[in-house]
């Protein structure tokens, strides 16, 4: 699309009469809860057709049903599955394309969890599992969806890989997660360089800081996930560690965040919406940190 045409497209969208994502189809992995679910709801409100994906089929279906009920029409479908299963992506992409009338415009690689351990005690299983979920899975989905992105139809195409400040700055106890999240930064830049020139595909990374989700809650709250190998992994941060951060002041845990608080799932999802929207049409290959000012 010529620059003048792109400018006209942006100008025509400024009022967003039918939504910033009207006519687009989006796959959002890990959208049965948390940030992914909020992103699915926001995308649907902006006119997109959304494919809700989660390893938990009940949660995935519940999100899709709630979206369709809210809008009084079918704006979402649930295609549950495990992103560490290579057989999942052909099914996911096929159903997404069918729902989108033969087109897919947006991929948000959001699915994931943490399985922490200090370097000298981390097992190969911990290492391989987290790299598969956060590194190999985004690559496999992008590769599978390539025929729907390597097209010249003048319509926008955008990929967002969700990372973390653990990937941009490192984090004690998260060597596996940090490496995987650093890796998707390179993946985004490579997609931007390979698919941007001929096909206009934008690919960016969003690195979240402290967002209030099950991954940052106290482990004692009981959130967990079962890995493909059947291991039960407790999610969250040990309560003792959280207490040490707070000390006598409950707000002390966030003293290194200029805004003085964690972000919400809706705020995180809003950042994703911004990046895939027409307002970010000239932002490509970038890593955007959403941290409330931490690490600036």
Automatic annotation (TrEMBL):
SUPFAM superfamilies noted in UniProt: NAD(P)-binding Rossmann-fold domains
Kindly indicate where the leader peptide sits in this chain.
Answer: none
Mind telling me which InterPro entries this protein's record contains?
NAD(P)-bd_dom_sf, SDR_fam
Q: Name one GO molecular function term.
A: quinone binding
Biological processes per GO annotation: fatty acid biosynthetic process
Note the Gene3D superfamilies from the entry: NAD(P)-binding Rossmann-like Domain
**Record keywords, A-Z:** NADP, Oxidoreductase
Q: Which family does the record claim for this protein?
A: Belongs to the short-chain dehydrogenases/reductases (SDR) family.
Protein name stated in the entry: Uncharacterized protein
Report the source organism. Knufia fluminis
